[in-house]
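Subject: design request, 149 residues
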């Protein structure tokens, strides 16, 4: 099933109204392959559909999380971002503490080590999330940073 059909079925199962505005929000969210705040998404949606309000985007993102289409991420800066979940493989994150850039990374060795640690300590794996913080190459190589740091 595609994302739109899954979301429409989720709404029907919850006895929630299907609306064009929710469809527009989902369509634009699915086109943007990056970690977005509700404000980022609202800005993108407004360009094409100015009648869509921020509250509608925010509530729709909560529903998309409930439906399994996306997941909420809150990094150390405290900002809530959303990323695609359905149809996307598990990944971890590298986050720049200076510019906020976020890279998705997959490393099979790390995944195996995490599974080993869970089993070694008697845990039944359900899910995990790993976020690594540092300074990205672009920020590290900035001339202003090299002089002071």
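Subject: RE: design request

Done. Sequence follows.
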């Amino acid at each position: 099933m595609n994302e739109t059909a899954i979301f429409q079925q989720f709404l029907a199962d919850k006895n929630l109204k299907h609306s064009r505005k929710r469809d527009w929000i989902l369509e634009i969210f699915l086109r943007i392959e990056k970690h977005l705040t509700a404000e980022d998404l609202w800005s993108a949606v407004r360009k094409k559909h100015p009648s869509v309000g921020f509250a509608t985007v925010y509530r729709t993102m909560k529903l998309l999380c409930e439906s399994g289409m996306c997941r909420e991420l809150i990094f150390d800066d405290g900002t809530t971002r959303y990323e695609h979940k359905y149809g996307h493989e598990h990944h971890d994150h590298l986050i720049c503490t200076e510019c906020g850039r976020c890279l998705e990374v997959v490393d099979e060795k790390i995944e195996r080590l995490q599974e080993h640690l869970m089993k070694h300590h008697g845990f039944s794996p359900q899910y995990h999330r790993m976020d690594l913080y540092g300074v990205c190459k672009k920020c590290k190589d900035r001339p202003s940073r090299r002089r002071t740091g």
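The first strand starts at residue 70 and ends at 74.
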